[in-house]
Amino acid sequence: MDLNTRESALLLWGLIVLAPLLVWSFRNPKMRRALVNFARTVRHPHIVFAFLGLVGTTGAAAWALSLLGLWTWPLLKDTVLWAAFTGVSLVFSAGSRGVGGARWRRLLADQLKVVVVLTYLANSYTFSFVTEFWTFLALALVSAVHVGTEKSARFAALRGASTAVLGAYGLLIVALATHHAVVFFGQEDMALMLRSLALGPLLSLSLTPFLFALYSASWCNHLRVHTGWRCEDPAVVRYARRRIVRAFALRPWRARGFLESHGPALFRLQSKGEIDELLANA
How wide is the angle at C-alpha 144 spanned by C-alphas 141 and 147, nearest 5°? Predict the structure, then answer.
């Protein structure tokens, strides 16, 4: 598959930045230990399950869309990019137990940013290689300023300026993608462009049941961890945890309310009768 000028520029910057970083990482003992610890962390069963669930759900969704004529092999790159950016972001966000409105607004804003990034990476409307090369460097610097000033009130004005620059460029990219789709109207590529624009929302929608299951499992696991810390009978702890999973599986909001109301009692419980009574009053 031939690379366009944008993909070639990104590949070159990747080689310029990542190659020296990898060499330095393997020569630095602390970085080697950090990489080993990271490799051990990603092998955790919960992370492996989440990754396999994302891959399986994405593959099943692509297969179902192909049966409807909405997915073809030219969309493979778009699908992989969606999984690497939006899919991973959604999966790890679903594992968080926060439920406040601010959290969900921030998650939505992050997803809108990801959509712009995907449009930038997958868009077939590109400039010359030199323009793409230096534009990416400028965007990387502005993005670094944007992230680096996020938690400091002293640099609020600088963060506002970087937000405006990134927002303007994001709108430009989306406008170019839309213009490109209109230009191809009536040609063979038009159908592919429309399927590409619809692919992200459709894949996100297909991932929703898996995300809900992850969110529910996160709260059930949180309840299990809080159960029976002072209990010396392992059989009682196992019984209590089984009852909790049966009572709150796929009911994350009930699990949250139960933890807020009966968290200390869970921590102190000593018998099967106590957990039965707590669940009866839930």
Answer: 155
